[in-house]
């Protein structure tokens, strides 16, 4: 099998190689072989996709030489003025900066580009993430809100703004942004689960008892919707089990107790199935995040202890 | 193999029925098409469809959205909306690099 095919099949099994270090490492180790092979000269859509992924992985693992070569070929093909190549070049400059001064220079370059072309979305996004990386969260939020005011149908930006608000503990704003994502992508089950999580966290952080129960019920609705849209969404089931468990503990006086218990039981069954199949390495069940599975196991064990006590 | 045989058989039938229809229109242009030619056309097309579907090498995807996205979650750990959590456009490459260095160090110490 040629290296191009090998990389493509690897990417189809691991669609987001940046999520954990080992997949990035694997990809970047393939980079020199791919770059020196004859297949790297093919001008197909797939080849350029591979180039972009390799560039990101190599930057992450510190293989700057391969990264520079990828970037060089991308800019030869698409021109240095292409918005996407400009953003990737910026990314390369950020990654290889050694001092704060160099980063400030990169930021200044972004601002110059934006002065010429204020609608350059990829560069605007780079500027925002660089601001964030330099610790200027407030500036980043301001820039992101203005970006969203001129292009309000960019789901990625709404999701990012939500996470920024979340780090500032502005939970209602964070939920608002997630709801905007849902307006654009009504099937995004992970966003439903995320709203459930943020609702749960904000209710746990403060609020009186009655408000808390109301918020928990709200969170349950979101978790339930997320697992309705994706039957093996671990985080959805986890949230459902956690929050229904809390509500059962609070012993609601109205007739919702039975419903909560059956929901809790259903979530437990699903989680037990996920944990046991993941641990036995059953084919088709190995995609879960290991840390998330461990957390699910923890939750199940804690619950069992409570019952046996 | 079965699909290839089915496709060739149904193609021959289809060609045959077209030929019959053509001959019929030349010989007796005023009467309507005989029933057996019509039946042959329909049967050959149905068989051809079956043959093509049977010959599909790729696994068929589930029709139901929730089953399909559940499958993606448990096989690949990343559904169709994973990019909303990853957000490559806002990638903080310096943090990712630092995380990677830490991971490598941890792996070296662990081994």
UniProtKB/TrEMBL annotation, chain A:
Belongs to the EMC2 family. It is a peripheral membrane protein. It is found in: Endoplasmic reticulum membrane. GO terms for cellular component: EMC complex. This is ER membrane protein complex subunit 2. SUPFAM superfamilies: TPR-like. Residues 99-189 form the EMC2 TPR-like domain. Pfam families: TPR_EMC2. PANTHER family: TETRATRICOPEPTIDE REPEAT PROTEIN (PTHR12760). It comes from Tuber borchii. Its main location: endoplasmic reticulum. InterPro entries: EMC2-like (IPR039856), TPR-like_helical_dom_sf (IPR011990), TPR_EMC2 (IPR055217). Component of the ER membrane protein complex (EMC).
From TrEMBL, chain B:
Keywords: Membrane, Signal, Transmembrane, Transmembrane helix. The keyword Membrane applies. Residues 1-20 form the signal peptide. The keyword Calcium does not apply. GO terms for biological process: protein folding in endoplasmic reticulum. It comes from the Eukaryota. It holds the Pfam family MMgT. It is found in: Endomembrane system. One of its GO terms (cellular component) is EMC complex. It is a multi-pass membrane protein. Belongs to the membrane magnesium transporter (TC 1.A.67) family. PANTHER family: ER MEMBRANE PROTEIN COMPLEX SUBUNIT 5. This is Magnesium transporter. The lineage of its organism: Eukaryota, Fungi, Dikarya, Ascomycota, Pezizomycotina.
